[in-house]
Design a protein that fits this description.
single chain, 248 residues, two-stranded antiparallel ribbon
Length: 248
């Protein structure tokens, strides 16, 4: 195969030459009969801002978190303090905070929140759709609630894309506070990929230090940068490593 499927070929026009070459090589491998694996971070990569933080504020402000009597601002302040102390543990705490909610409510609210989320990056949505149509196995590996990112994938027109995200155990249809390991943050992303996919990605895409280990084990790495943050940690590291950076 020397030509890309039309949807992907059109999607790649939004990317710079170095990133275009990386995605094109992946699709050509798929077209030659392979099944290459591409792992994408979600927050800051597929969309701007953090959808998990947005939903935590929404749940707290709406009084929907069981056992939470303090003002929602206290919940948010505790989350921020936990993230400052240990980013991965803070993200896990935000998901465990939903303990006591029914899973069907979490799924329904996640779909509602994802449908209203205004920060999806159209170029990334077109890219993922194109890669899937080209035969690439696309997996979202995120330090956000699995339920929420699955809902976001549906909103992006990617209902069959697999999501490895933070989740808690469910008993009798109700969420517990027991976080399922590994937590999909930093090295936990690599552990989850190894556990659930049994192979390392041919390409990985991320935007922050939380994605570093996943980028390091991939055959190729691409970093997403924000134009208003030209000296962000991962952008500087990408320059050192020779990883292409796509700006938004």
């Amino acid at each position: 195969m020397s030509r890309l499927p039309t949807p992907l070929g059109e999607a790649l026009r939004s990317f710079n030459p170095a990133c275009r070459r990386a995605f094109r090589a992946l699709a050509l491998r798929a077209g030659a009969g392979g099944r290459p694996l591409a792992c994408f971070d979600a927050d800051g990569t597929l969309w701007a801002e953090d959808i998990g933080e947005g939903m935590l504020r929404w749940l707290a402000a709406g009084g929907l978190l069981p056992g939470t009597r303090a003002p929602w601002t206290h919940v948010w302040a505790e989350y921020e303090a936990r993230v400052r102390e240990d980013r991965c543990a803070g993200y896990a705490w935000a998901v465990a905070k939903m303990e006591g909610l029914r899973e069907d409510d979490v799924v329904r609210w996640s779909r509602q929140f994802a449908a209203a989320w205004p920060c999806y990056r159209p170029a990334m949505v077109r890219l993922l759709r194109g890669l899937c149509e080209a035969g690439v196995e696309v997996v979202l590996v995120t330090a956000t609630s699995r339920w929420l990112v699955e809902a976001a994938a549906e909103c992006m027109g990617l209902p069959s894309v697999r999501v490895l995200g933070i989740e808690v155990r469910v008993h009798g249809g109700v969420l517990t506070g027991e976080v399922v390991r590994p937590v999909t943050c930093r090295a936990g992303k690599v552990e989850a990929i190894r556990l659930h996919l049994a192979r390392m990605p041919d390409l990985a895409v991320g935007d922050s230090a939380g994605d570093l280990e996943m980028l390091e084990v991939a055959g190729r790495a691409v970093v997403v940068g924000r134009r208003d943050q030209p000296r962000a940690e991962m952008v500087l590291l990408a320059r050192e490593r020779g990883w292409p950076v796509q700006w938004f």
